[in-house]
Structure formats: structure tokens, C-alpha cells
Amino acid sequence: MFVLKNAWSSIVRRKWRALLTVIIAAIVTFGTVFGVTALTANNTATGSAYESQKVDAVIRPSAKVQATYDGADSSYTKNYLGWSGYTEYANQVQSAGIKFEYTLAITVPVRQSGDVKAIAGTDDQSADKTGGEFQWRGFYTLQGAQENEYGRYKVVEGKHLNYTDQTDKSSVLISRAVAKKNNLKVGDTFKVAMPNNAKKTVELKVRGIYEYTDAAAKGKGDDAKLAKDNRDNAIYSTYTTFAMAGLDAADGTGWLNPDLNITFILSDMKTYRQFVSTLKKAKLPSTYTVSSPSITAYEKRIAPLGALAAPMQGSLIALWVVGALLLLAAAGTSMTVGRRGEIATQIMIGVSRARISWQLMLEVLITTLPGFVIGLLAGTFGTKPLIAKLAGGYSASPASDLIWRTVWSGLGVIVVLMILAIIRVMALRPATLFAARESNVAAAETADAADAGQTDGDKADDKAAADGEQEAQA
Q1: What share of the chain is helix, strand, coil (3-state, %, to 5)?
Q2: Under the phi-then-psi rule, with left for phi > 0, alpha for psi from -120 to 50, and beta for the rest, what region is 237?
Q3: 393, 447 in Cβ contact below 8 A?
Q4: Which of 118, 261, 277, 345 could be bridged to 233 by S-S, CB 3.0 to 4.6 A?
């Protein structure tokens, strides 16, 4: 009890040093948990998770070809890869032993008909040139809809498409913008006309109303020159409904030639690389490129995490070095000259070095352990939301083995500081300290004596001067 009381009394007398030690320990511990978690998450995201992700692959016209797109020139449709082309390349891939699943989206422009109108473009032209003001897109599966080139959307009214119903001839989704413009509600019907024949119409029923969850690409939103290029004018249905309208003709011409986009679904990155290599050997024309929307989306998603982790390794090293030096400095002030005098006095009056060592060890423990615990708790519970905030929503939690490594490392540092406190006490020589004090006292006495001698001389001189003046007067 005596040792604990003395330790606490010493800490209270030096409360700023104690507070600084708590803060340093908390910062170093929290920084360790946060930094290592961010580094580990980034290494996983760019390593094993990146390689093992399921990958989609598409074959689309090259950027150079897409730059020639003219929505009023139906000859552009010759750049579409049709059913026969996809079949040829799929056979090549299968021959190479590559397994895949697939889904698809298929699109043609359709004309507005009756009272229902599309959202106008900024420079619209006749439907005879453009094929229509709407784009009708059919999805083979839900995954095909999720990988929609126009962007991700959500159904805000009504129901999603039913991909298992093989008899549905009319159910579609329309955008909220089109629904609002035409006062359409779920369950209402409207008509569209074929791109090559304004008199041939199809009646459609609004199954649901959607909204996009991301921003439109340039030229695909309100800035679209042609109405059909505004993604809000897209009509979505299942592939079955699309085909029943007679829009999937393999021999279609002009705008009736569908834009077929088959997505190959591959098991991992290794298989994707084999897929790309196989198509290259199959002499895929330079007018087409193979890409993966899922890889692009994944890399975009982890980019903020990479930016966060990039400086983390150097920052952690700096944190550990500076933190260790500051903790040593804070602990070292416990053995300043004034404190050494206090300890030496305790030794001289009979307090054992063991008890003094226990006191200093308790001082180290009381000031470092709370900071360590605070930093560990803050790191354990605060790292996940902080990384999510700084890394664009990427979720990463401290691993249990990291928490335990931090616990043992922190306790190890505390033990080292306590051992250093013992060493300082055992190495202290009171005689040396008091010898220094005696030397200082002797020096002070010598200075006092010199001052006293100078004063006596001054008095003798004053007396002689007074006697001389008296003789002169006589």
C-alpha cells in the first residue's frame, strides 16, 4: 500500500507528464490497429481477393469504332457482333477447355406511338433516320440487368421483371422521367412501333418504374442529342418479351439489326486471362476489344482503399519510432536530477531499492496501461467505420490475430519500460549524488568567504581615509 500510495502521489505531482504518456500510448496503439488493418485489407483486395473474384467478360466494338457512332446512320449497326460471331468465339473458348456461364442484353430502337412520348433530345432527327425515340432492351437474366451498360437501376414502383415467365409478351419497366412526362402508372399500357415500320406496333404494360442509382455517362443523360440516346428513354423487358415482339432477328437489317451484348461469366482472373489469350489466338478483329466491366468496377471500388494504404507502411514505421522515443523520454524524466535526489534520500533513510523499483514500475504501469487500453478499444471498434469513411465505403475490420498481437506487443513495451525503471534505480549511487551536493555547498561557502574578505578591506580603507582628513584639519 505504501508503494502504491507513493507511486500515485508522484504521478499526481507530475500530472502533465502522466497525461502525455497516456495520450502517446493511445495514439500509437490506435494507429497500429488502424494502419495494419488498412494495409492488410489493401493487400487482400489487390491480391487473393482480386485473383479469386468471379469475372465477366464482354466483346464490344473498340473505342475507335464507337467514336464513329452516328445515331442517325443505320449503317453503324454493321459493327455489331451478331449471333454467328459470338457462336464462333464461344466455340473457340470451349475448345481451349475454358468453362463459362453467360447472360446477355439485346437492344433495338423503337418508335414512340400514340400519345406516349419520349424525353426529347437536344438535336432530334426523324425516326426514319434514327429508328425511334426509345431503346428497347431485353435481359436474359437478372445478372444481365445488373450489368446494364446504361447504369445500375432500382425499381421504385411496381415489380421487377420476372425472368422465369416464358409467356409474358408485354411486361416492361419504364423510367420515372418517362412515367412522369406521360402520366403513366404501374398497370397502364402504351404502344411502341417498329424501327423500320411505324405502322407495326406492340402494346406494352408497365410492370414497374425504375430510377438509376448512378450518374449518366456523357451524352447519355439530359445532354443526349437524340432522344434514343438518353438512357431515361430505355424500356427494359426480359429477353422472352423482347423476342416475342420479333426483335431478335438474326438477319435483321438497318436499325432492326439488334445490338447483341453477350456477357461471359468466368470463375476467376486466371480464367479471364486465358479467355483473352484464346480470343487473341482466334484472331479477334481489331475493331473489337475484350474487357471486363466487373474488373473495372472492382478496381474503382478499391481505389480509395489503395490511396489510403499507400503511405501507411512508412507512416507506421514513423509512428512506432517516434512513439517509442517519446515514451522513453517520458519515462526518462522520472530520473531527472531532482527525482534522483528524492530517490537517493529514500535510500539513505532506509527504503529498500526493491520498494523504490516497485514504485517506479507502478508509475510506468499506471500511466501507460490506460493509454494502451484506450487505444486498443478505439482501434478495435473505430477502425471499421473510419476505413469505410476514408476508403469510399470499403469495409475492413481488425482481424482477431492482429488484436492479440497488439495486446502482447503493448504489454511487452510496458514490461520493457518497467525493467528500465528498475535498472535506473539499481544503477543509482547516492554517494555520488551527495558528493555533488557537497561540492556545490563548498563552492558556495568559498564565494561567501570571498565576499566577506572584500568587505573587511573596504572598511580598513575607509578608516585610514578618515584619519588622514583629521590630521590635515589639525
Answers
A1: 60, 15, 25
A2: beta
A3: no
A4: 118
* Residue 106: CA count within 13 A, CB half-sphere: 25
Spatial contact of 270 and 62, defined as CB atoms under 8 Å apart: no
Confidence of residue 333 (pLDDT cuts 50, 70, 90): low
Name every residue whose Cβ is closer than 8 Å to that of residue 80 and which is 6 or more positions away in sequence.
61, 257, 258, 259, 260
pLDDT digits (tens, 9 = 90+) for 145-191: 998 999 999 999 999 999 999 999 999 999 999 999 999 999 999 99
In single-letter form, the type of residue at position 185 comes to K
- Burial of 430-446, coded b for 16+ CB within 10 Å and e otherwise, reads eeebeeeeeeeeeeeee
444: helix, coil or strand?
helix
Distances (CA, A) of 169 to 4, 203, 205, 242: 85, 9, 9, 8
Whole-angstrom distance, CA of residue 61 vs CA of residue 396: 38
Q: Are 343 and 426 in contact (CB under 8 A)?
A: no
At residue 411, what is the residue type? Answer: L
Contact 433, 341 (CB under 8 A): yes
C-beta of residue 41 within 8 angstroms of C-beta of residue 388: no
- Rounded distance between C-alpha atoms, residue 33 and residue 375, angstroms: 9
Hey, what's the cell of 110? 423503337
pLDDT tens, position by position, 286-327: 999 999 999 999 999 999 999 999 999 999 999 999 998 888
- The cell for 50 is 482480386
Distances (CA, A) of 289 to 67, 272, 280, 285: 14, 14, 10, 8
